[in-house]
Amino acid sequence: MNDTIYAPATGAGRAAVAVVRVSGPRAALAVQALAGDPPRPRQAALRRLAHGEVALDDALVLWFPGPASYTGEDAAEFHVHGGRAVVEAVLEALASEGLRLAEPGEFTRRAFENGKLDLTQAEGVADLIDAETDAQRRQALGQLGGALSQRYDAWRELLVQALAMLEAAVDFPDEELPEDVAARARPGLEALEAQIAAALVDASRGRRVRDGFRIALVGSPNAGKSTLLNALAERDAAIVTSTPGTTRDIIEVPLTLGGYKTLLADTAGLRETEDAIEAEGVRRARAWAAEADLRLWVIDAAMFHVKQNNELSVLRSGDWAVVNKIDLVDAYRLEELREILAAQGLKVIEMAARKPDGAEEARAALTSHVVEALSGAEFPAATRIRHAESLVEARTYIQRALSDVGLEVELAAEDVRLATRALSRITGRIDPEDVLDRVFSSFCIGK
Ligand SMILES: Nc1nc2c(ncn2[C@@H]2O[C@H](COP(=O)(O)OP(=O)(O)OP(=O)(O)O)[C@@H](O)[C@H]2O)c(=O)[nH]1
Ligand SMILES: [K+]
Ligand SMILES: [Mg+2]
Questions:
Q1: The model's pTM
Q2: From the CA of 354, which ligand is nearest?
Q3: What positions does the entry give for Mg(2+) binding (predicted)?
């Protein structure tokens, strides 16, 4: 039998109300010990909480007999005044009744184990709690509502149908069934393979909604990268000085643009250097830039020289050139720069980052870019690397099955079985402990 667990469900610190949750077989006893007979199920009752002779608080008490509770077990909630001493006293009383403090995510893990939600929905719960932007919230809510579960279940169903045909062909060879029985599995498998392939392309956009669209500021020392970062962040996140080589570490600033989470990174100016610390900074700058979704190549309009080739090597097509310090040059020079950079296939933005509102055009352009890149990506087939890994695996088995159909039907059937397992792992229909541990360890205590 499970332990009975308790935890504060609300954040630490002073607040008007704090909620303490209890779940497990001794939940009714715990309510009895602190608040007397459990109230009517799912109805709040105002009670004096006491432990032995000691009064603890006046609180709302809710009693959720299983299985109609969040965890599926007997559960209760105490809505107490949100002072630290009150919460501590209630937690202590519960501990002395033989209950134990819940581990991170343990309530949701029990809900999962009791079939209240599947693994992607459990992840939706965690993501909803972590959601900082509107897009993250929509994505998490969709996932909690079963958007991913439904898609995976539909795919699983297609695999089960294909498997049925292949198994029929294995069990009743030759005479009893038409010889093209196995071949009938093919169109379904082909369609599914294509759907998974498309989903994988879309998955990286979905992950960007959850984890943030990554924008790297790169360029020569002193081009004004840190100045631009600070202007966009609207605070002095990075040190700005007139000394080239000021920034060494990557400075990441989360920025919400058009309702989407982005991560803006200021990086060390790119140059050959004897200084070991700066060289490490340059290495990190290149590595971050390589993984980014967009690179902004910041250029000092007065100093730029066409031969800045070592910087070009980090750029990809579709990246932007930000011509900074336009206050220092004339129109003729600007026109010249524009031509050179456009010829490189870069989108060109001009600014004086140091001037008030100097970065507003860049902010507007970035906002439209991110919205365009991510809109609609709230509901992809995969929001985590874990999902994408299993999708890749399922796809590989389906491809192998397709090459075996007609030759070795038994092998094809086995591959389809393996593909089914890979998909089942995403929703937790089959749930190796390590996958569960990975998912639930990211939760906070009390959820
Ligand atoms: N005139 C002018 N100066 C600017 C502008 N933007 C930045 N600067 C100056 O350029 C110098 C370098 O700016 P930073 O933001 O530190 O440049 P950086 O690219 O981060 O430099 P490193 O970190 O050393 O690679 C500072 O003295 C800034 O004040 C601008 O729009 N116009
Ligand atoms: K500098
Ligand atoms: Mg800098």
A1: 0.80
A2: 1
A3: 226, 247
